Amino acid sequence: MAQRIVIDPVTRIEGHAKVSVQIGDDGHVTGARLHITQLRGFEKFCENRPFYEMPSLMARICGICPVSHLIASSKACDAILGVNIPPNAARLRRILNLAQILQSHALSVFHLSSPDLILGLDSPPEKRHLFGVAEKAPEVARDGIRLRQIGQQIVELLGGKRIHPAWVVPGGVSSPLTAEKRDQIQALLPDGLAALDRTVDRFRGIFQRFPEEMETFANFPSLFLGMTDGAGELEYYDGPLRVAAADGSVLATGLRPEDYPKYLGEVAENDSYLKSAYYLPLGYPEGMYRVGPLARLNLVTHCGTPRADHELGALRTFAGSPLLSSFYYHHARLIEMLHCVERIEQLLSDPDVLSPHVRAFSEPNCEEGVGMSEAPRGTLLHHYKVDRNGLIQWANLIIATGHNNLAMNRGIQQTASYFIRDGRFSEGALNRVEAVIRAFDPCLSCSTHAAGQMPLQIDLLGPGGVLLDSVSRTS
Amino acid sequence: MSSSKPTLATVWLDGCSGCHMSFLDMDDRLLALAEQADLVYSPLVDRKDFPEHVDITLVEGSVSNTDDLAKIQKVRAHTRILVSLGDCAVTSNIPGMRNPFGVKTVLTRVFVDNVTVPKPVPSEVIPALLDRVRPVHEVVPVDVFIPGCPPSADVIFETLQNVLAGRPPHTGQVQRFGA
User: Fold this and answer.
1) Contacts of B113 (CB under 8 A, 6+ apart)
2) What tens digit of pLDDT does each residue of A87-99 get?
C-alpha cells in the first residue's frame, strides 16, 4: 500500500517547514519533498520606501543572520549612492560579519545539531535538545553557549544591539570604533579560541561515529558556488564569485555580482514558498549547486589563517577534496568558526581600525544597485532599483537557502531512501531525514522573505492518490 | 517532564526568529531557566504536537497563514498564560506591511515577476496566506505583552522570572519600544 509520511513541523531548524515522503506499493521511497510554509513578501512591500531604509528593514528578514542582510543591503545602497566607502568602514563591516558567522554557526552546531551528534539520532526525542546535551555533556553545552555569546557580544559592542543593530548604513557604518571597545572585543577572543580548540578536538571523534550518515546525507556530485578573494582564499565580504564542478575543477571564476542574471536562474516550485536557484548555463534542474560552509571550503585553496588551515588540511586528508557529503557541513562550520576568530584578531590589530573615517555621504547617483556577501549559510544577494528621488521601485533577493533548495530536496530523498525500507521506519529514521536538513542549516526566516515522538501523520493513499486512511500518532 | 516544575513553551508564527534568538541571548541564564521550568514545546525541541497543558507560552510572530491561525487557537486553548513576544506578535509589525498590497499582488511579484521561468504560484501542500496579517491579540486573548524588535534577553528573562514567581509581569526599566 502506498503511503505518504508527513513530518510537520521539522524541528531544530531555523524556520517553518514540513517534509513529505512518498512510499510506493513495493515499500520503497519514491519521492521526498521539503515544503517551506511561510512567506512575507519583502520584495513587494519595500516599494516606494526610501532606499536608505532598506538595511534596517531588510535585516528584519532574519533574526539569525540580520547582519548579512544589513551588509548585502548596504552594499546595494553603496552602489546606488555611487560611492567607494572608506577602507575602515569596510574593515568594520567585515568584523561585524565574521562575528555574526561565529554566532550563527555556534547556533547550528550546538543549539540545533549537537543533540543528534552528542545524544545520538535514535536517542529519546523528549530529551533531544540543548538542555538534554547540558545534562549529559555540560562542558559541550557551556562551550556552545559561550561561543554563540562571544559572537553576539562582538556584534553588540560594534553595533549597539545584538539583534537588528542599525549601525551598518549606506556609505559605511554610522560611528567609528573606540579604543575601549576594541580592547573589549580583543579580550573575548582568547576565550573563543580555547573553546574552539576543545570543540574541534571533541567533534573530530564524534563525527567518526556516523559512517552511514556521512555516506547518505546528501552525498552526491553537485556544483559549488561562493565568493572568494579572487585568488583562492576564503572571503565573506567582497569579491568575485566562483563556480566549481564536483571534481573540483573551476567552471567559472571572476563572476561579478551585478551580472548575476547571466549566470543564476530562479524557478518557483508548486509545493513550497521557497524558490529554487540554479546555475543558468546548465539549466534546471541540472544546474543544482550547493553554497555555504561546505561549498566555500571546496572553492578555496586555503582559508588564510593558521588554525583554520591546519584543520582544513586534516579534514581534506581524511575525507578528500572536494567534500561531497553534506554531513561535512558540520565540520566545515567548525573550521569557519576558527577562521572567524583568527581573522577578527588580525583585523583588529590594524592601527587604522580606529580611523574616524567610516562613512561616505552622497545623494543617490545611480538608479540600480546589487549587493552581495557571504552569509553564514551561503551567498546572499540584494538587488534594488530606485527612482530619481531614491524611492525603491523594484527589489529582488536571492538568499542562501534558495541556492541550496535543489540539493536539500535531493538530499532528503537520498536519506529517506536509505533509512526507510520496505515501508518500515523508526522515529530515528525520520529524525535522520530532519538531520540532513539540519546539516544544510537552512535559514527559513531568510527563505520566506519571499518544523518527538513524532506526530506522524501517515496518509494511506490508494491508486490515483485517493486518501484511504489517515493515522495520526501523538506523544 | 515527570517533575512538578512549571512548563514553558515557545511558538514561532510569522516572524524573523529574532525574538527566539533574543531568548537564546539569555546565554548562561538559559541553563538556570531550565532548572526552574521544563521547556516542553519549542522550535528548539523535538516534540511535534502542542501539549495538553502548558503554564507559560511565549509567541513570536503574527498570524499570517492558515497554519498560524489553527496553531494559535490550539496554543491558546492549552495555555494558562499566553505572552505576545516582540513587535510582530504585538502589532503585526513587518509581516503586516504586506496588508495594503493584498496577497495576490505579493505572490505575483515573488513568484511570477521575479523568476527566470514563470510558473503558477505555489499552491500544493503549503498553507494559504490569509488576506490580512494580524497581531496575536486580534485572534485570541493575550495575557502579557512584551514589545521590542526584538525584546532584549534581559526583558525576556525578567518577565519570565516575574511570571514564574506569580508577580506582575512588567519590567519598567529594561523594556524597550520599537527598534
Assistant:
1) none
2) 999 999 999 999 9
Buried b (16+ CB within 10 A) or exposed e, A185-218: beebbeebbebbeebbebbeeebeebeebbebbb
**Strand (E) positions, A24-167?**
29-36
Interface test with B, best of A39, A167, A426 (most B CBs within 10 A): A39
Residue identified by cell 525574538 is B19
- The rounded distance, in Å, linking the Cα atoms of A222 and A325 is 10
Question: Is B57:B82 a contact under the CB 8 Å cutoff?
Answer: yes
For the record, the C-alpha cell of A447 comes out as 527563505
The set of cell numbers assigned to A10 is 521539522
Element (H, E) at A196: helix A179-207
Side by side, the strands of the sheet bearing B54-60 are: B38-41, B7-12, B54-60, B79-85, B144-146
pTM for this structure? 0.91
Q: Which residue of A has its CA nearest to B19?
A: A63
Separation CA A7–CA A33 (nearest Å)? 10
Q: Measured in Å, how far apart are chain B's first and last C-alpha atoms?
A: 37
Number of alpha carbons in the 13 Å side-chain half-sphere of residue A286: 4
Q: What φ, ψ does residue A163 adopt, rounded to 5°?
A: -120, 130
- The tens digit of pLDDT for each residue in A9-27 reads 777 666 667 788 888 888 8
Domain boundaries in chain B?
A: 7-99+131-164
- The CATH T-level fold of domain B7-99+131-164 is Rossmann fold (3.40.50)
**φ/ψ of residue A430, rounded to 5:** -70, -35
Q: Which three cell numbers stand for residue A213?
A: 550518515
User: Which cell goes with B87?
Assistant: 513587535
pLDDT of B172 strictly over 70: no
Buried b (16+ CB within 10 A) or exposed e, A406-419: bbbbbbbbbbbbbb
Please indicate if any CB of chain B lies within 8 Å of the CB of A358: no
Out of A63, A431, A475, name the one closest to residue B21 (CB). A63
Task: List, in order of start, the domains of chain A with CATH numbers.
Answer: 2-39+409-473 (no CATH), 42-403 (1.10.645.10)
pLDDT at A350: 97
ipTM, interface predicted TM-score of the complex: 0.89
Structure confidence by residue, pLDDT tens digits, A299-326: 999 999 999 999 999 999 999 999 999 9
Residue A269 contacts B where some CB pair is shorter than 8 Å: yes
Chain-chain contact of A129 with B19 (C-beta, under 8 angstroms) = no
